[in-house]
Amino acid sequence: MNFLIDECLHTSLVDVAVERGHDATHVNYRGxxxxxxxxxxxxxxxxxxxxxxNNAKDFRRLYAREDIHAGLVILIPxxxxxxxxxxxxxxxxxxxxxxxxxxxxxxxxxxEGDIQIMRYELPGxxxxxxxxx
Length: 133
What we know:
By secondary structure, the chain is of the alpha/beta class. It is built from four helices and six strands; from the N terminus they run βαβαβαβαββ. It has helices spanning 12-19, 37-47, 56-64, 81-97; strands spanning 2-5, 23-26, 50-53, 72-76, 104-111, 114-121. The protein has a six-stranded mixed sheet with strand order 2-1-3-4-5-6, sandwiched between helices. Strand 1, helix 1 (12-19) and strand 2 (23-26) form a beta-alpha-beta unit. Helix 1 runs parallel beside helix 4.
C-alpha cells in the first residue's frame, strides 16, 4: 500500500510502513505541513494514498464525500510516538490479513491497554454532523 501520514502523527510511522514492505511518506516530507484538511484531499487522491491520521472527526466527514478512495486509517486516541507505532503496526497486521481498504476506514484504538480495530465502509456509513459514525 501507499501511505501518506498526517502531520498530527510522528514521522517514524513512515519507517514502520517501509519496514513492512509498503510505500509511505509524511505530509512534512511533501511540503504539506500546515495545509488545511480539506486541501489535503487533492494530493491524497492524486497520489492514490491511503491516509493515516489521528483527526477522525474531520477526515471521516471529508472521506464520506468521496466517491472512491484508497482508504483511511485512523489512530485514536492521541498517544506518544511509541504507542502510535504500536497502533499503526496493528493496522498493518489487519491489512495483511484483509488486504486493501478501497472505500473503507480502519480505526485502531487503545482502550484500557487493549488494541481495538474497527473496519467500516466510507462512504456508506451514516455520519452525523459531528463527523461520528
